[in-house]
């Protein structure tokens, strides 16, 4: 699994998850349950992870959606 996005923006997480899943790219939202520990203050960013083999396609889709600034480099 490769981390492609890290953000505190829950709307962004939902949008990107939907975008990738609609393209049949499996997505794992890591740290999604940290809100129970942090009290919903947004201190811990959520991470979107995709399988290594799907990372290039996922990045391409995110760029095409105009959200290249959200991508993690690596």
TrEMBL record:
Coiled-coil portions: none
Gene3D superfamilies: UreE, C-terminal domain
Protein name: DUF2007 domain-containing protein
Highest taxon above the source species: Bacteria
UniProt cross-references to InterPro entries, sorted A to Z: DUF2007, N-reg_PII-like_a/b
DUF2007 domain location: 1-66
